[in-house]
């Protein structure tokens, strides 16, 4: 698991850090925005099949080819729908001509990944985890080397986006080769294909919604920032989020260590309570350590990682640190929900998050600029943590929170407030004046 996590980190966070350093802020912002838009559109083809496939294959190993065949048929149908949507958006001028040159190859690349990941699920379902690890590791290394080389030699966003197709095609071909050797192809339904297609779409709708809610949260922020502030601000924001996404990778690793241990005990047992507290403190201290690094290094870390052109990131860097810290707090509560078989309660929390990110940013971005989106993320993760805490308390599940953890949380907030200008009168007044001028301009 650690190998595949590291490989995905290389082809994701580390690659985008390298791209931010090579490209201009505007080009990096445009590439990031187009990648987010392509990723959200591709969720239609993903349709949350992963969890449903794992359940179905786990129950019926001997029907794996038939199960995969039914889902592949559905994915191809959804792929056709996506093509129609994309061509319609392009035909009626909803996509900027410059962005179209970047979005088009990125959509193709993300679709190739979608079908490759789909085949990898089969390996997971039959217990061949090493196959997935091997494929992901090889493909991620090739992806990083290829994209970085193209970026370094051309510094051209369109060429970089096009190279994504080459890399992801290699990944898909590698998946197909291993899949055919181990699974042996697909078995498609011979009759009632339309009825089976309809059944797959209806039955998997809840999984699709859950997948959309989870994955869209990672991309909607960039799309909203681009709409209100432009691609340059997307570039600065994403540079900060790259650091957050990289440092938060330790959270899921710790969660996967503790989850099997927690699952052995009843949620009302003393052992569960002890492990829950240990999990919470460990994640809290990890988040606090990262916050301190970001807080103390706010003046130097952005320039070291991205170069002088991102020196302006220093002013808002501590807010990214607070967001990262609160993410670790929320992860601990989320693990306890899953271990107590209350994961379905997380869907409401995700739905609330989507509503907040659609409602708050228009106001906060006008008031505080790019910092407003970070405030939105902080508000979302705070509400999620409180919601998770409420559910755990209501179901009488130990939440792991102690007086020590409360002191650490208050210390982080105090450190940020003492060194923050968020409560500065001029800062707020200028923000309000900016907001009023923007809204007057709209009217």
Automatic annotation (TrEMBL):
Domain of life: Bacteria
Keywords in alphabetical order: Cell membrane, Membrane, Transmembrane, Transmembrane helix
A GO term from the CC aspect: plasma membrane
Keyword Membrane assigned: yes
InterPro entries the record matches: Poly_Biosynth_Transport, Polysacc_synth
Transmembrane residue ranges: 7-24, 30-50, 71-89, 101-123, 135-152, 158-176, 279-296, 316-340, 347-364, 370-389, 401-418
Membrane topology: Multi-pass membrane protein
Subcellular location(s) of the protein: Cell membrane
Keyword Cell division: no
Stored PANTHER family: O-ANTIGEN TRANSPORTER-RELATED (PTHR30250:SF11), PST FAMILY PREDICTED COLANIC ACID TRANSPORTER (PTHR30250)
Protein name in the entry: Polysaccharide biosynthesis protein C-terminal domain-containing protein
Organism lineage string: Bacteria, Pseudomonadati, Pseudomonadota, Gammaproteobacteria, Methylococcales
């Amino acid at each position: 698991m650690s190998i595949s996590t590291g490989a995905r980190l290389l082809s994701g966070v580390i690659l985008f850090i390298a791209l931010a350093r090579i490209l201009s802020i505007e080009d990096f912002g445009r590439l990031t925005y187009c990648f987010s838009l392509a990723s959200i559109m591709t969720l239609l083809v993903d349709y949350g099949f992963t969890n449903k496939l794992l359940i179905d294959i786990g129950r019926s190993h001997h029907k794996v080819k038939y199960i995969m065949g039914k889902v592949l048929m559905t994915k191809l149908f959804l792929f056709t729908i996506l093509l129609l949507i994309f061509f319609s958006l392009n035909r009626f001028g909803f996509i900027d001509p410059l962005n179209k040159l970047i979005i088009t190859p990125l959509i193709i690349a993300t679709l190739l990944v979608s079908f490759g990941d789909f085949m990898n699920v089969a390996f997971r379902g039959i217990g061949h985890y090493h196959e997935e690890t091997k494929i992901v590791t090889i493909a991620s290394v090739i992806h990083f080397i290829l994209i970085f080389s193209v970026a370094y030699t051309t510094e051209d966003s369109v060429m970089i986006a096009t190279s994504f197709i080459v890399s992801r095609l290699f990944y898909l071909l590698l998946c197909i080769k291993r899949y055919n050797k181990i699974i042996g192809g697909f078995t498609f339904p011979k009759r009632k294909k339309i009825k089976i297609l309809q059944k797959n779409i209806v039955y998997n709708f809840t999984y699709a919604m859950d997948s959309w809610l989870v994955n869209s949260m990672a991309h909607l922020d960039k799309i909203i920032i681009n709409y209100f502030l432009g691609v340059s601000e997307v570039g600065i924001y994403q540079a900060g989020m790259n650091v957050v996404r990289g440092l938060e990778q330790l959270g899921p690793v710790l969660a996967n260590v503790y989850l099997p241990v927690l699952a052995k005990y009843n949620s009302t047992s003393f052992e569960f309570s002890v492990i829950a507290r240990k999990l919470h403190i460990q994640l809290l201290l990890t988040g606090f350590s990262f916050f301190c690094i970001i807080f103390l290094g706010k003046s130097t870390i952005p320039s070291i990682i991205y170069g002088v052109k991102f020196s302006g990131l220093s002013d808002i860097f501590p807010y990214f640190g607070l967001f990262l810290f609160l993410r670790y707090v929320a992860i601990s509560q989320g693990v306890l929900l899953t271990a107590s078989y209350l994961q379905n309660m997380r869907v409401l929390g995700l739905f609330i998050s989507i509503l907040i990110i659609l409602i708050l940013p228009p106001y906060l971005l006008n008031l505080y600029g790019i910092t407003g989106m970070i405030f939105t993320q902080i508000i979302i993760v705070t509400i999620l943590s409180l919601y998770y805490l409420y559910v755990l308390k209501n179901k009488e599940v130990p939440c792991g929170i102690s007086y020590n953890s409360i002191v650490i949380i208050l210390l982080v907030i105090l450190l940020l407030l003492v060194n923050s200008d968020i409560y500065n009168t001029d800062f707020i007044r200028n923000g309000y004046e900016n907001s009023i001028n923007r809204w007057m301009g709209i009217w």
